[in-house]
Amino acid sequence: MARHVYACPLRWSDMDAFGHVNNVVFLRYLEEARIDFMFRLAPGEGSASFTGGSVVARHEIDYLRPLVHRHEPVTIETWVTKISAASLTLAYEIKDEERLYVRASTIVVPYNLEEERPRRITAEERAFLKEYTDDSMEEAVAA
């Protein structure tokens, strides 16, 4: 099982009055990693995978320790814990070489923008997602 690895830069504006990354900003970091995974990495040359759109149905996030501003990016590892007919669950860890800051998960629903409704995951998308699937982590993320 592979994990998608994304180097996420920290911006000075990400900090709150206490000098660490604001809790809401972590959701933006997850979004950046998810978009890189699903819309840059997944489609590949000429593929229509995930290009129709997707919506977030649910986020769960555990803040494990504060992250303060620094010039080095944090690493966001993303993998798949569940694939159903019309949704998938992604798990994430935001960390560096020394610490784990956040553990999170997101339920994503592929969406048909023209019809304004959810759609099923295609065979091509399912094949891609299976390369990044580790369902043994689903319980650890949910815990």
- CATH topology, by name, is Thiol Ester Dehydrase, Chain A
User: How far apart lie the N and C ends?
Assistant: 21 Å
Task: Provide the helix percentage.
Answer: 10-25%
CATH architecture: Roll
Q: SSE string, helix = H, strand = E?
A: EHEEEEEHH
CATH homologous superfamily identity: Hotdog Thioesterase
> What is the CATH class name?
Alpha Beta
| Oligomer status | single chain
Give a count of the beta strands, DSSP E runs of length 2 or more.
6
The chain-level mean pLDDT equals 88
Rounded to an integer in angstroms, the radius of gyration calculated over CA atoms is: 16 Å
The coarse silhouette is: elongated
Structural class: alpha+beta
Give a quick set of tags describing it.
3 helices; 143 residues; Thiol Ester Dehydrase, Chain A
State the gist of this model.
With 143 residues, the protein is of the alpha+beta class. It has three helices and six strands; from the N terminus they run E-H-E-E-E-E-E-H-H. A hairpin with a 4-residue loop joins strand 4 and strand 5.
Characterise the protein shown here:
By secondary structure, this protein is of the alpha+beta class. It has one domain (4-142): Hotdog Thioesterase (Thiol Ester Dehydrase, Chain A). Helices cover 22% and strands 34% of the residues. The protein has 3 helices and 6 strands; from the N terminus they run E-H-E-E-E-E-E-H-H. Strands 1, 2, 3, 4, 5 and 6 form a 6-stranded antiparallel beta sheet that branches. The longest helix has 19 residues, at 23-41. Mean pLDDT is 88; it is low at 138-143.
